[in-house]
Write a structure and sequence with these properties.
The complex is a heterodimer of chains A (172) and B (204).
Chain A: H1 2-34, E1 38-40, H2 42-45, E2 56-62, H3 67-82, E3 87-93, H4 100-110, E4 116-120, H5 125-132, E5 139-140, E6 142-146, E7 151-154, H6 160-171
Parallel strand pairs in A: 1-4, 2-3, 3-4
Antiparallel strand pairs in A: 2-6, 6-7
Chain B: H1 2-21, E1 34-35, E2 40-42, E3 47-48, E4 58-63, H2 69-73, H3 75-85, E5 92-96, H4 108-118, E6 124-126, H5 132-136, E7 140-141, E8 143-150, E9 153-160, H6 176-185, E10 199-201
Parallel strand pairs in B: 4-5, 5-6
Antiparallel strand pairs in B: 1-9, 2-3, 2-6, 4-8, 7-10, 8-9
Classes of the chains: A alpha/beta (172), B alpha+beta (204).
Chain lengths: 172, 204
């Protein structure tokens, strides 16, 4: 009888241990599958700034700490949804790398962002800012809209109507 | 035919001119312009003007604030600039350009607290009514204008970033502001008179 008791205790602990491990593994997996963040330097980013296909691309430079950026994000999300065939929105985060885990990924998850989010980590901004657009002073939010024929740059905030009006000109 | 050529020439001139105007800050000062003086409230309750600095050779004017992560990343470096160059004739003058109703974290009280916590030795001024930053053409924080005193007034010699690495001061390879002030102090030409960096848009 005594041995059965000990066996029971052992079983109990081993079960608990196993289920905890399992749960941890599941949590870890779900975090990883839900938010995988692509991080690029400017050279890597350039493939997102040019196209040869028929889509129109809306590339928005933003950061979670940038209040006007966060305010206009829903408009970009709405655009991405309403024009899912002809338009692709890409949200380029300029969050600091040490905030990817604590700020950026939780933000993407909590807001359930559907547009593609990538991170740009390239400190030599004096070199790459003019390559995005010669007129950009470096303030964010900033947006590039382009297709294979034309390109326009905006160092400003958008509301949805303004954004849609600009994009429509590319879809003609 | 002659008229067509004239029109074409005029058009080309306009295009070329406008492309110059568009370089860097679209509005506000360009290198070579004379910068306006101001009379702004400092965190110590006094008013500060550039004309107060009789013995200065020029100024490192920095538009900055409490609430922008880029500005915060540069706080120690701005203080270091003042420590190094105030005695050499180029003091730092920091101006907070944001609308404090949009950014309460940039209020005069908050500025005072931040300056105290960080031990700022330079004036930290409030752009009350947001009248000064548009004249300079600042678009973001931090945004630096180096001015040199000339007979014509305070001439803009450099516009742009502090250095080329906002993330890590120890990994900086180009100290744009130091290089520019050093050049001015030794009477040499500034190699890079305009640079760019990401910053927080000024809140209106």
């Amino acid at each position: 009888m005594k041995y059965v008791w000990i066996l029971g205790v052992m079983l109990f602990f081993s079960c608990k241990d196993a289920s905890e491990k399992e749960q941890l593994a599941v949590e870890k997996q779900s975090l990883e599958t839900e938010i995988s963040l692509e991080v690029y330097d400017f050279e890597g980013l350039q493939k997102f700034l040019n196209t040869t296909n028929d889509k129109t691309y809306v590339v928005n430079f933003w950061a979670t700490w940038c209040a006007p950026c966060v305010k206009e994000l829903p408009h970009f999300e709405k655009l991405n949804k309403n024009y899912s065939e002809a338009v692709e929105v890409i949200l380029v985060s300029l969050d600091f790398p040490n905030k990817y885990e604590t700020k950026l990924k939780p933000y993407i998850k909590n807001k359930n962002l559907q547009s593609k989010v990538i991170a740009l980590n390239d400190v030599d901004s004096n070199t790459w800012i003019p390559k995005v657009d010669e007129s950009w002073t470096g303030a964010i939010p900033a947006t590039v809209i382009f297709n294979k024929n034309e390109r326009k740059f905006y160092e400003k905030s958008f509301n949805y109507d303004e954004l849609e009006t600009e994009v429509k000109q590319f879809l003609k | 035919m002659k008229n067509t050529l004239k029109t074409l020439f005029a058009l080309i001139t306009i295009v070329v001119m406008s492309s110059f105007v568009n370089f860097g800050a679209g509005h506000g000062y360009h290198v070579g312009d004379i910068a306006t003086d101001f009379k702004l409230d400092n965190i110590d309750g006094k008013k500060v003007s550039l004309s107060d600095y009789e013995s200065a050779k020029g100024f490192i004017v920095v538009f900055t604030c409490n609430t922008c992560p880029y500005a915060v990343a540069y706080e120690d470096r701005i203080e270091a600039l003042n420590k190094k160059y105030a005695d050499l004739g180029y003091p730092v003058i920091a101006i907070m350009p944001n609308n404090t109703e949009v950014k309460p974290g940039d209020s005069m009280d908050a500025m005072r607290a931040r300056a105290k916590a960080k031990g700022f030795t330079f004036p930290y001024l409030m752009d009350e009514g947001q009248k000064i930053y548009p004249q300079y053409g600042a678009t973001k924080t931090p945004h630096v204008y180096i001015l040199q005193k000339t007979k014509k007034g305070n001439q803009v010699k450099y516009i742009g970033a502090i250095d080329d690495n906002y993330q890590d001061a120890s990994a900086v390879t180009k100290k744009y502001v130091e290089d520019a002030v050093d050049a001015l102090l030794s009477g040499k030409e500034i190699k890079e008179t305009q640079t760019r960096a990401i910053g927080c848009s000024i809140k209106v």
